[in-house]
Write a structure and sequence with these properties.
Two copies of one chain form a homodimer. Chain A is an all-alpha fold. Chain A has one domain: Tetracycline Repressor, domain 2 (Orthogonal Bundle). The first copy, chain A, is built from twelve helices and no strands. In chain A, helix 6 packs across helix 8. The model of chain A has no long low-confidence stretch (mean pLDDT 96). At the A-B interface, helix 3, helix 10 and helix 12 of A face helix 3, helix 10 and helix 12 of B. The first copy, chain A, binds a DNA duplex through helix 5.
Chain lengths: 232, 232
Amino acid sequence: MKDDLKFEAFKEVVSLSVEGLSRDLFLGNRESIKIKKEGVAVKNLVKILNAALALSNQKGFAAMSLRDLSREAGLSMGALYTYFTSKEELLHMIQRQSAVVMQVLVDHIEGIDDPKFKLRRAIQAHLFLSEILREWFYFSYMETKNLGRDDHRKAIEAELFTEKLFIDIIHEGQKAGAFREVDTDLLGAVIKAMLQDWYLKRWKYAGRKVSVERYAAFVVEFVEMYLAPSQE
Amino acid sequence: MKDDLKFEAFKEVVSLSVEGLSRDLFLGNRESIKIKKEGVAVKNLVKILNAALALSNQKGFAAMSLRDLSREAGLSMGALYTYFTSKEELLHMIQRQSAVVMQVLVDHIEGIDDPKFKLRRAIQAHLFLSEILREWFYFSYMETKNLGRDDHRKAIEAELFTEKLFIDIIHEGQKAGAFREVDTDLLGAVIKAMLQDWYLKRWKYAGRKVSVERYAAFVVEFVEMYLAPSQE
DNA sequence: GTCTATATCTGGATAGAC
DNA sequence: GTCTATCCAGATATAGAC
């Protein structure tokens, strides 16, 4: 279908990667990071972040010791501490970068007028983003409650913000007569739940060989049927 | 609607409680629990389990120290260790009791013939169960990856088992002509995701004053519209 | 910039008094 | 049956050599 966004194309366009996120992270934390050469810092941050996400998502951030992390990242304990001043700050750094990603979703759908098309694109973009950075999304979801007060609040705001994105699109569609009247808040909530399931249960979908494009198509169809104006 | 199960009625019938689960737990672990008097043991198990669930769900099981638990439960460290032999065994105990609950769901829908009615009842019963024991469900979901090998495997089997429950009902309905042909696996997966969202995001629904009955009605309507045979 | 060695503390677990 | 006191492994964090 011509409306459908292809995953590979999307990936090219947004060009998100651990390298990119590491570079942003380095540039945004030059004061607290003791390493001054960008090349060295970014290379090690990539190793640290990949290792931290892998270990945390396997057994939880709290259960990951910095010795584990040191081994997995291939850096000594001393070296680790030149990139962050405490384990808590490492958590904070990862969480902040995750939050930034959501801006990509917003940028991707702004300017689209047709509500039905916009809803479809929003669902696809959300799923594709979480596919590209699934470890970050998983981490962000699972570690929310371990965050400090401020980060915790921001994480909840981010959840509500993306949910509202969907709710607003549905409202627009209802005003335009493209969608029928439904409980918009609840629909927004379950759309979000279905999108999150994609990265929370990746083992399940991978085992069944479900591609992200197929999952996206299913969610779109499911929601569109519910919103279709009743034929009279 | 006459088909609708009422939450309060359901609660009466199944009569699940922390006391009940504690008693079962005591009877099922008489060898390893050092306390012999049932009354004492059950009373303290209730305190321990409530405290453990509250603390774990707040900041994660790994981050909960047994000193925290001791304070919250109002028992000394020494007393705690007469009910379990290690922190890991406490995790195991909670997880096992959670798993048992699912049998209630199976019992509740067996013998129903009409697929549409059966699907509705299964959705309602799942949501109502998780509403009664939301702390157990939340714990079970969030701590899955912290479990030992065996418990971890069982937790995944439980997830797939309940999902299959829904998938089977949908298949029956399709054979009977009550539902149209759809991707049954994906529909089962997202139904499960929506049911889980109820206990994973309780703060959200509570804040919006959404009752479990209303959420159930929404999910049922959402799924039934998708499954309705196309009118030609 | 990175490593090894070590200081310091937290938390799981237990012994023994009551 | 319950508590206090204590042991000790393992964790975070840092100092100082290279």
